[in-house]
Structures are given as C-alpha cells and as structure tokens.
Design a protein that fits this description.
The chain is mostly helical and about 240 residues long. The protein has one domain. It has ten helices and no strands. Pfam families: TauE. Belongs to the 4-toluene sulfonate uptake permease (TSUP) (TC 2.A.102) family.
C-alpha cells in the first residue's frame, strides 16, 4: 500500500511539473521511481509516460516551438544516444547519479549568480548531445536544456514548447534503444498503464498553473527544482 501511495504521488506531482514547466517529469520522477523499481524499470516507465505527455501537449503549443533550435537539439542528440546506451550498460548507476548531481548543483549555482550564456549553433548541438546521453543512460534529458534556457533568459512559452517537441523525439528514440539493448518487462508496461489517469489529472492541473507563472516565478521554480533534484541524487548516490 505504501508503494502504491508513493507511486501515485510521484506520477501526479511530476505530471503537474512537466505540463506547467516543460521539464519536471523526468527530473522529478526518475530519481524517486528508483525507490520502488529497478533502474531499468524506472527509466523505461519515465520514458513511456514522458512520451505520452509530450504527445498530448504538442499540438496545442506547436506555434511556440523554435524549429531551427529544435533541429539542432535533435541532430546533437542523435550523436549522444549511443553513448548514453553504453553508459547505462557499463557504468554503475550510483556513480552516474553522483556525477549528474554534482553537474546540476554546480551549474545551477552559476545560473543563480546570473551567469549568462550566449546561444551559438555549436552550443545548441552540444546541449542536444548531452540530453541524448542523459536520456538513454538515466532517463533525464532535462538538466542540460533547463540550464541552457535559463542562462540564455529564454521566455517560458518558448522553453516549454521547444522542450516538449524535443522530448517527443528523444524519448521515442531512447525507449526504442532501451528495449532493443537491455529489454523490457511487464512491470514497466503495467505500471505505465496504471499511471495514465494520474498523468491526465496532472496535465489538467499543470495547464492551470502555467497560466499563473510569470517569468520571475518560473525562474525561481526552476532553481528550486534543480537544487532539490541535485541534492537528492547526491545523497542517494553516497
């Protein structure tokens, strides 16, 4: 019963964050799903549900997508996906979570002191590549995108739309790669099926919250989300 309650809370809160910010599901769900599932199961459940969320939202926000930027992210991620698969199959998950937590915390600190990042095509490709690596390795493409968008002071509408469009591609590719390279099981698909009503509820609540977020609140919320995730991953990996 405790496991069921934890699962419900994780999926519902993460769905709300994903819909209202464009980032929250993978950053919120993956670390906490690892508390009740095996790493392979937690990552694949995250990929499936994140893909469903992106599919459900993409038509409504399609006009806000930065398509040239999206193209560069996708090209970069294609190069990163195979490396992420190798990482997942060969590196201890705890070591990987430690590295990611340190990166998140350090870069978030840079963002909080108003470190500015100038967008360039090369950096767009690099961010896409890092997201590809993190998606297939630990199911979390969000941190590189979130930090990059924050540093470039991108508007929240463009952030959410471009990110969700990118997720639509990277989650589909990553899920296929995971299934082919490490396999899957019924626990993944049954748990994902049970979570769909929670995701739908989170979509509705998240859309409502998005209307009330101004740019300043959006930025503060981003910091809180990153720091919380970084601290959790760090503690969990030690």
């Amino acid at each position: 019963m405790n496991t069921v309650i934890i699962f419900i809370c994780i999926i519902l809160i993460a769905s709300i964050l994903q819909t209202s910010t464009g980032f929250g599901f993978s950053i919120m769900a993956t670390p906490f799903l690892l508390l009740i599932f095996l790493p392979q199961e937690a990552i694949q459940i995250n990929l499936i549900l994140s893909l469903l969320i992106s599919l459900s939202l993409i038509y409504k926000i399609r006009k806000e997508i930065d398509y040239p930027l999206l193209k560069r992210f996708i090209i970069g991620s294609i190069a990163g996906v195979p490396f992420g698969s190798l990482v997942f199959m060969s590196i201890n998950v705890d070591h990987l979570k430690f590295i990611v937590s340190v990166i998140i915390l350090v870069l978030t600190l840079f963002m909080m002191v108003n470190l500015k990042i100038k967008t360039t095509p090369f950096r767009d490709y690099l961010v896409g590549g890092l997201s590809g690596v993190l998606t297939t390795s630990i199911g979390m493409p969000g941190p590189p995108l979130l930090l990059y968008f924050t540093g470039t002071d991108t508007g929240k509408e463009k952030v959410r739309a471009t990110t969700l469009a990118f997720y639509l591609f990277i989650y589909l590719i990553s899920l296929g790669t995971q299934v082919v390279t490490v396999g899957t099981n019924m626990t993944v698909w049954k748990s994902s099926l049970y979570a769909i009503p929670l995701v739908i509820l989170g979509l509705v609540l998240g859309q409502f919250l998005f209307k009330w977020f101004n740019q300043r609140v959006f930025r503060i919320f981003t910091y809180v989300l990153l720091i919380s995730t970084g601290v959790y991953l760090l503690i969990d990996s030690l």
